[in-house]
């Protein structure tokens, strides 16, 4: 019994079995500890093999105790495979992309296991590996012909993994028009989540052949081009400056780098212009496009620029106007804002008569915390920025309603970014209209407080016909002169 315990082969087998037990006890959540255990047991088994003069790379004829020799060599090769696989997994984790490298990891693990299996057959059981490889080659050819499409997807997936044209979470656009975010990449296919919230499954072989644009690299800012055609009633330089000022008031685009207004051509019927701007992420394209179309329309209406007919139109009407003939009035600005929808025509005419148009230069302060008198103003043309806590909170475009309220953030500043025109509404006249309209009072208060991201401590329930004294007095103080 003592002789068996002192036998090197028994010690190797015991270490191999103990290594397997400890390896399983470590659990999948501790890959580094698993690797250290594998290395320790494998090093001990290797030291005993070398000290005993046994070579795992050479077949030795079976003798007495041959079963123990087979078990010792087999366990040594198994621990060699596990140690190699542990190193591969640790490298992938340290490389910071365990999901993207899953295909490469699976391939390396398969190669390691195949190599260990052939080594055990050759050096432990003395199989003729050459004959086995030749036979398996014929079988592989038959299987390759039968699984040509599957193997094509498999190796295409491997090529995509090694080339890394995209990663999990990237937003891509294919030349066939498909676009979306990569959510999964398997051996056979790649799964794309489209803007319509559908999953498109594309074979890797198809994805490897088609051209794609990765708009998540180097970051997700994405350029959008918005074309316009305007009538050539003004110089092109005036059109460029008008559209540039329209972009300044946009909140859904990136302002650094600044948007570009590009002239594409001019003829007797139209000036072709493109607005080139960036959005922060692909999902912002539609909101940014909608916002800019509205801002450009308002800016063109204010400056008297008319939109032109499409280039493909076969009918041209002389002196046809597709836009406004002049800038918006206070009445029109009030009618366009849902806050004031309860005002009738007489009220609108009264407010228009008492409204005062103010002019500001770029950099002028419209409102700040030092103002002693509250104000209510509506932008007619130009753009302004609201600064709160030394950061830009929001930008104001034509039609925006803003003001200063006692009790809000006193550090908020309203600064003109361009030449700006704004109507200043007469406070007492407007307060008299608010007395019987609690819904309009609440809507106005919510809008004004949202500009700086603050909220009032006192509010009322719309539609109950009552409002707290704090709310009405605040509105009254806001608008009284």
What does the model show?
By secondary structure, this protein is of the alpha+beta class. The chain folds into 4 domains: 145 residues, no CATH class; 49 residues, Roll (SH3 type barrels); 82 residues, 2-Layer Sandwich (Alpha-Beta Plaits), CATH 3.30.70; 150 residues, Jelly Rolls (Sandwich). It has 15 helices and 16 strands. It has a 5-stranded antiparallel β-sheet. Strand 7 and strand 8 form a beta hairpin. About 5% of the residues have low confidence.
The chain-level mean pLDDT equals 78
Give the neighbour order of strands across the main sheet: 4-3-2-1-5
- Apparent shape: elongated
Q: Please summarize the sheet with the most strands.
A: 5 strands, antiparallel
What is the architecture of the largest domain at the second tier of CATH? Sandwich
The CATH homologous superfamily of the largest domain is called Jelly Rolls
Work out the count of structural domains.
Answer: 4
Question: CATH class of the largest domain, please?
Answer: Mainly Beta
- Radius of gyration, whole Å: 37 Å
Report the portion of residues in β strands. 15-25%
Poorly predicted ranges (pLDDT <50, ≥5 residues)?
Answer: 318-324, 455-472
Number of strands: 16
What is the element layout, followed by pairings?
Layout: H1 2-6, H2 8-26, H3 31-51, H4 66-94, H5 102-123, H6 129-146, H7 148-163, E1 171-174, E2 179-185, E3 189-193, E4 199-203, H8 204-209, E5 212-214, E6 222-230, H9 236-248, E7 260-266, E8 271-279, H10 285-303, H11 330-336, H12 345-354, E9 356-360, E10 365-367, E11 375-381, E12 384-388, E13 391-396, E14 401-404, E15 413-416, E16 420-424, H13 427-434, H14 438-450, H15 469-479
Antiparallel strand pairs: 1-2, 1-5, 2-3, 3-4, 6-8, 7-8, 9-16, 10-15, 11-14, 11-16, 12-13, 12-15
């Amino acid at each position: 019994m003592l002789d068996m315990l002192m036998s090197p082969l028994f010690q190797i087998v015991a270490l191999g079995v103990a290594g397997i037990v400890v390896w399983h006890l470590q659990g999948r959540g501790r890959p580094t500890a698993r690797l250290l255990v594998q290395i320790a047991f494998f090093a001990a088994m290797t030291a005993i093999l070398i000290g005993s003069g046994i070579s795992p790379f050479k077949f030795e004829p079976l003798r007495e105790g041959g079963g123990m020799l087979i078990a010792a060599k087999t366990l040594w090769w198994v621990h060699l495979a596990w140690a190699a696989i542990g190193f591969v997994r640790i490298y992938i984790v340290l490389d910071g992309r365990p999901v993207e490298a899953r295909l490469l990891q699976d391939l390396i693990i398969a190669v390691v296991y195949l190599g260990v299996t052939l080594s055990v057959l050759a050096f432990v059981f003395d199989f003729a590996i050459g004959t086995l490889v030749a036979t398996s080659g014929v079988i592989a050819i038959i299987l390759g012909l039968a699984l040509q499409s599957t193997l094509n997807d498999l190796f295409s997936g491997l090529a995509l993994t090694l080339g890394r044209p995209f990663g999990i979470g990237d937003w891509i656009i294919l030349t066939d028009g498909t676009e979306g975010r990569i959510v999964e990449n398997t051996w056979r296919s790649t799964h794309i989540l489209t803007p319509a919230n559908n999953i498109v499954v594309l074979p890797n072989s198809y994805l490897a052949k088609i051209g794609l644009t990765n708009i998540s690299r180097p970051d997700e800012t994405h350029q959008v081009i918005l074309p316009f055609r305007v009538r050539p009633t003004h110089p092109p330089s005036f059109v460029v400056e008008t559209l540039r000022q329209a972009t300044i008031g946009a909140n859904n685009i990136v302002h650094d780098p600044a948007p570009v207004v590009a002239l594409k051509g001019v003829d007797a019927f139209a000036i072709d212009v493109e607005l080139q701007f960036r959005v922060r992420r692909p999902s912002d394209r539609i909101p940014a496009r909608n916002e800019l179309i509205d801002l450009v329309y308002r800016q063109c209406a204010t400056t008297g620029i008319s939109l032109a007919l499409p280039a493909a139109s076969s009918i041209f009407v002389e002196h046809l106007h597709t836009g406004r003939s002049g800038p918006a009035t206070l009445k029109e600005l009030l009618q366009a804002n849902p806050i004031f929808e309860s005002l009738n025509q007489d009220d609108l005419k009264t407010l228009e008569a008492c409204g005062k148009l103010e002019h500001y230069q770029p950099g002028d302060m419209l409102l700040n915390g030092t103002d002693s008198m509250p104000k209510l103003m509506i932008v007619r043309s130009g753009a302004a920025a609201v600064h709160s806590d030394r950061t830009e909170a929001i930008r104001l475009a034509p039609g925006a309603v803003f003001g200063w309220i006692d009790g809000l953030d006193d550090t908020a500043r309203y600064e003109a970014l361009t030449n700006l025109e704004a109507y200043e509404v007469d406070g007492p006249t407007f307060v008299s209209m608010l007395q019987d309209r609690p819904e309009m009072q609440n809507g106005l208060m919510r809008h004004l407080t949202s500009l700086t991201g603050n909220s009032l401590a006192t509010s009322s329930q719309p539609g109950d016909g009552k409002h707290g004294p704090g709310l009405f007095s605040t509105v009254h103080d806001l608008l009284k002169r």
